[in-house]
Amino acid sequence: MFHLETREITKGPEPPEWRLYACVAHFNDKIYYFGGEDPNTWELTNHVDFLVLDDWHSQKILRLSDDEQEWIEMGKIEEKQTDVAIATLDGKIYITGGSDSSDVCNSCLCFDPQAPPDDRISRISGLNCARYGHSLVAANGKLYAIGGYEQWICIKYCMLVEEYDPELDVWKVVDQIDDL
């Protein structure tokens, strides 16, 4: 881990499993780790410690403890997705798009770490353009989904820029990428 104050790098605790294409969010001085693929089996996961053992799946979201010595379970989500995008906005972590190995997803979730455990995860409106491998940016009280792929085999780019208004729970297309 890199410490801004001392500008030093130290080794933190290993997550329960390493994942390809996982996302990390830093929020309220905590580190959250979401999604990805098992590098050994290429099975999709829905959380950092999603385990694949005879089709048994754990569905946990973990965050690094305050003392940075262990990972703490924070909740569970349903989807098995990889290549999602995440961003923090107004005290919440938003999870958008991704792929479930056969389809590209437009689904979006909101994770509220401050809510009671059973109410931490909620579904929000889906993206207009299903996409994975995209960027999600928070700015001026809105979220922006930019780029990514519309098809699983990386042959078609999503050229739309979408804006999410959390007050209205609506995604709208605000721009288009002309050329890559």
TrEMBL record:
<keyword id="KW-0880">Kelch repeat</keyword>
<dbReference type="InterPro" id="IPR052392">
    <property type="entry name" value="Kelch-BTB_domain-containing"/>
</dbReference>
<dbReference type="InterPro" id="IPR006652">
    <property type="entry name" value="Kelch_1"/>
</dbReference>
<dbReference type="InterPro" id="IPR015915">
    <property type="entry name" value="Kelch-typ_b-propeller"/>
</dbReference>
<protein>
    <recommendedName>
        <fullName>Kelch repeat protein</fullName>
    </recommendedName>
</protein>
<dbReference type="Pfam" id="PF24681">
    <property type="entry name" value="Kelch_KLHDC2_KLHL20_DRC7"/>
</dbReference>
